[in-house]
Amino acid sequence: MTTGELDRFATWIEELIRRRGFDIDSPRGGGKSRLADEAGVHRAAITRLLQRQSMPDLETTRRLAQVLQVPVRDMLIQSGRLTEEDLPLPATGQASMGGPRLTLEEAADGLGIAADQREMFLRVAGQFLPSEPVAAAGRRAPLASD
């Protein structure tokens, strides 16, 4: 890893941390400690990253991604550890790229929703769709409008 990659990643993650409401700029803001606590990592790992001394290990990266509400894929690409070609997005559900859209039933299958919870899943998830809502468990509805 080059110094430039570390600096680029640290700059990117600093902005993300600020947008998520962690005060990392004032000495007594407590943002670094709060971030470390919420992620379940050592404060020193946060400090080393923000001071551009070292890149977090994979487990720390995973935990930070969860707290900062960003996919681990994005963290790994932004860190320079992997490229978009190394971590391609799956073809299914890539509506923005012209790919096929998942139905709620396909999503339930993919998520392993148990049969006794399927109808509730379809009803609840259907409420968040911008297109027509799901009225019954057997009805197929796209995850996003066309």
Protein model, in words:
- It comes from Streptomyces laculatispora.
- Pfam families: HTH_3.
- The chain is an all-alpha fold.
- The protein has 2 domains: 3-78, lambda repressor-like DNA-binding domains (434 Repressor (Amino-terminal Domain), Orthogonal Bundle); 90-146, no CATH class.
- Helix content is 49%, strand content 0%.
- It has 7 helices and no strands.
- Helix 2 (31-39) packs across helix 4 (58-68).
- It is elongated and about 50 Å long.
Question: How much is the average pLDDT?
Answer: 83
* Strand segment count: 0
User: What is the CATH T-level topology of the largest domain?
Assistant: 434 Repressor (Amino-terminal Domain)
* Oligomeric composition of the shown chains: single chain
Number of helices: 7
CA(first)-CA(last) distance: 42 Å
Rg, alpha carbons: 20 Å
What is the H level of CATH, i.e. the homologous superfamily of the largest domain? Answer: lambda repressor-like DNA-binding domains
**Helix and strand succession?**
HHHHHHH
Low-confidence stretches: 132-146
Protein name: Helix-turn-helix transcriptional regulator
Domain HTH cro/C1-type: 35-75
